[in-house]
Amino acid sequence: MRVLTLIAFLFWLVAFDTWAEVEFECVLSEEQDVPIVKTTAITTPAMVQHGLGDDVRILINETLLNDYSPLMQEFIVKHECAHILLGHVGMNTLAQERQADCLTMKKMIKNEEISTRGVKSIINFLYRESVVNRQRAIALGRCLQ
After folding, report:
1. Maximum Cα–Cα distance for the chain, whole Å?
2. Average model confidence (pLDDT) across the chain
3. pLDDT tier at 3 (50, 70, 90 boundaries)?
4. What is d(CA 112, CA 109) in angstroms, rounded to the nearest whole number?
5. Which phi-psi region, left, alpha or beta, contains residue 24 (left: φ > 0; alpha: ψ -120 to 50)?
6. CATH number, domain 23-143
7. SS (H, E, C) the chain
8. Is the pLDDT of residue 93 over 50?
9. How confident is the model at residue 16 (pLDDT cuts 50, 70, 90)?
10. Are 106 and 143 in contact (CB under 8 A)?
C-alpha cells in the first residue's frame, strides 16, 4: 500500500510540475491574438483586462492557476477568451459567465480539444466548487444538450 501511495505521489509531483509548462493562446481572428500576461497582481487564476481602445489582454496568475488540472487550466483561460469574443466588458454577470462557459465548451468540443469524460470532469468540478459555480455547472449541462 505504501509503495502505491509513493508511486501516486511521485506521479502527482511530475504532473504538477508540468502544469506550469502549459501554454495558452487566445486567437480572435487570423489577424488578432490576445496577449496572455503572467502576473501575481490578481487574486483569481485568470481575468480579462481592457485598456484603451481595442487594447485587451488576459492576465493569468500561474500560482493560482497551478492549483487546477491542465484541462481545467485550459478551460479557465479559454473561458476568459470567450468573454472577449462575446464582447463582455467589466464585471461579468452570472448570465455572462454562463455564456462564456457555454461558448468555451462548445468550441473545445468542436475543435476536439476535450473528451466526453473531460466535459463531465469540468461540469462536476464546477458543481462541487461553490453554490454560484453549481448554477454555472447546471447551465453548462443544459447548454450542451
Report:
1. 59
2. 85
3. very low
4. 5
5. beta
6. 3.30.2010
7. CHHHHHHHHHHHHHHHHHHCCCCCCEEEECCEEECEEECCCCCCCEEEEECCCCCEEEEECHHHHCCCCHHHHHHHHHHHHHHHHCCCCCCCCHHHHHHHHHHHHHHHHHCCCCCHHHHHHHHHHHHHHCHHHHHHHHHHHHHCC
8. yes
9. very low
10. yes
pLDDT of residue 11: 39
Q: Among positive and negative, which fits the CA dihedral 75, 81, 87, 92?
A: positive
Instruction: Please state the pTM of the whole predicted model.
Output: 0.81
Instruction: Of 105, 96, 81, give the one whose Cα is nearest residue 33.
Output: 81
pLDDT at 30: 74
Residue labelled with grid coordinates 454560484: 132
Looking at residue 65, its pLDDT comes to: 93
Q: Which three cell numbers stand for residue 52?
A: 484603451
Are residues 109 and 119 in contact, defined by beta-carbon separation less than 8 angstroms?
Answer: yes
